[in-house]
Design a protein that fits this description.
284 residues; alpha+beta; eight-stranded antiparallel β-sheet; 7 helices; 32% helix
Length: 284
């Protein structure tokens, strides 16, 4: 059956069952949603999901489906409000991390955006014990909208305003540029601003690595290319990645003046993939 044809009957069932299943809740007919007050919060859930579910089922099953949906909604809202009580204003806890490209299944339920071929920009809840990636479902329950408007400034203007930049030896004659903030889990987000740390990168670009989420390594390339630096840098990156309790990527990349990024093979010193332009995942 068509969703439009069944919506009125399903909404009528919701109105009938609410006093029994969730007496404190109410149905908002103008916005087609159920509002479930929990403490001082009033989260709401659109009814489209249950209407679509009923449209695909025999009408005799509708009362059971609606009751199950209402109980599940009330339970989930209780958990969401527990989050609010734990985290306070959760918008202030949103951060961005660059992580190696997630699998398709995980990308469906995590709040993230592609950040080029090799990485994803993942929104995290910053909390010492209960933090972690923000799921799409959690964001929906908490009523979060325009997540980037909070996560991006919280990260770049708050967490990363005081990153350290220094050059340190990597071979007998060469140094590598280190962008770091010890203990910070979000330095990897500066992947979007590489040009800021590479004013001396010429037409050959630079070598880039993000072995841990607290450190980015950069090496501006001269006309001679990666040369002997690539194997040395690759070994440092592998060691840092293996030793870190918050690792990011074990790979070394070549960053081009056109913002392209390509993974390199340290053994052959050649590109492991075809170059592609890198685009911003969020505007700032």
């Amino acid at each position: 059956m068509d969703v439009f044809d069944v919506s009125a009957d399903v909404h009528a069932l919701i109105v009938d069952l609410l006093p029994v299943v969730c007496p404190s809740a109410r149905f908002d007919p103008e916005l087609s949603r159920v509002v479930v007050p929990v403490g001082r919060f009033e989260p709401a859930m659109p009814t489209l999901t249950i209407v679509e579910r009923c449209a695909q089922a025999d009408p005799a099953r509708w009362p059971g489906l609606v009751e199950e949906w209402l109980r599940d909604t009330a339970d989930r809202f209780g958990l969401a409000v527990a989050d609010l009580e734990l985290f306070g204003d959760i918008r202030k806890r949103l951060r961005v991390r660059i992580e190696p490209r997630l699998g398709d299944e995980r990308r469906r339920w995590i709040a993230c955006r592609p950040a080029g071929r090799y990485f994803d920009a993942v929104v995290h809840i910053d909390h010492p014990e209960y933090g972690g990636p923000l799921t799409v479902h959690r964001a929906r329950l908490l009523g979060l909208r325009r997540i980037g408007d909070y996560a991006v400034p919280n990260t770049y203007e708050g967490e990363l305003a005081d990153v350290q930049v220094r050059d340190q030896p990597i071979t007998a004659r060469e140094t590598v540029r280190v962008v770091t903030k010890p203990g910070c889990r979000y330095v990897s987000a500066l992947f979007t601003e590489l040009e800021r740390f590479l004013p001396d990168a010429g037409r050959a670009g630079a070598l880039v690595a993000i072995p841990t989420h607290s450190t980015i390594l950069l090496y501006p390339l001269g006309a001679a290319g990666p040369g002997a630096v690539l194997p040395a840098l690759a070994q440092v990156v592998a060691d840092m990645h293996a030793a870190s309790d918050d690792p990011c990527s074990p790979d070394v990349f070549r960053y081009g003046p056109d913002r392209s990024l390509v993974r390199l093979d340290p053994a052959t010193r050649a590109a492991a993939d075809e170059p592609r332009p890198r685009r911003r995942f969020w505007r700032r």
